[in-house]
């Protein structure tokens, strides 16, 4: 999202995280801006029964965790490496200086945050009123548009696991599996070698 050389000019450092490493924890105060060079990161919470709810999944060239950084509020979720990841960390004060001195970058950050807010609004409405098929298709279509899923000969490869789909939509994984099979029978999705395509 922000050019790597510009981030490094303002003092960003590269750090590697192994799969399942915490990048930051719920309840901590933010100290850095984070942008992914490679790998995948999820932001999630756990309810009282230990069930995970994924707030979002982030990929190469995406940033995460900015709202608490701007508000100086504690993180409302954990950020965890889904796979080995290399991430740029820019101290908060340097990040704010970068935004003040680079209007185009500020606009990009605002657009990115607006996109996430829009997604959260859409998914909140889906989760409160819609059936599993509708929720899953809405998530998948958003993923195609926002996460740039690759188009292959069978369609768009949906780069979410069934567990992630469940955690992102508030559905049990068993419901996700059943619903995806039903959508395949209707010709809306394809399942090839256990991979889902739209």
Write up this protein.
The chain is α+β, with helices and mostly antiparallel strands and 198 residues long. The protein has two domains: 4-118, Jelly Rolls (Sandwich), CATH 2.60.120; 132-197, Winged helix-like DNA-binding domain superfamily/Winged helix DNA-binding domain (Arc Repressor Mutant, subunit A, Orthogonal Bundle). Helix content is 43%, strand content 26%. The strands form four sheets. Strands 1-8-3-6 form a four-stranded antiparallel beta sheet. A four-stranded antiparallel beta sheet has the order 2-7-4-5. A hairpin with a 5-residue loop joins strand 4 and strand 5 (52-58). Helix 3 (92-101) crosses helix 4 and helix 6 packs across helix 7. The protein is globular and about 55 Å long. 26% of the residues are buried.
Secondary-structure element series = HEEEEEEHEEHHHEEHHEE
Largest sheet: 4 strands, antiparallel
Helix-strand category: alpha+beta
The count of β-strands is: 12
For this structure, what is the CATH class of the largest domain?
Mainly Beta
Helix content: 40-55%
Strand content: 25-35%
Evaluate the radius of gyration.
Answer: 18 Å
CATH topology of the largest domain: Jelly Rolls
The domain count comes to 2
CATH homologous superfamily label of the largest domain? Jelly Rolls
Q: What is the tally of helical segments?
A: 7
Shape: globular
What's the rounded overall pLDDT mean?
91
Strand order of the largest sheet: 1-8-3-6
Q: So, CATH architecture of the largest domain? A: Sandwich
Q: What is the distance, rounded to the nearest whole angstrom, between the alpha carbons of the first and last residues? A: 26 Å
Ranges with pLDDT <50 over ≥5 residues?
none
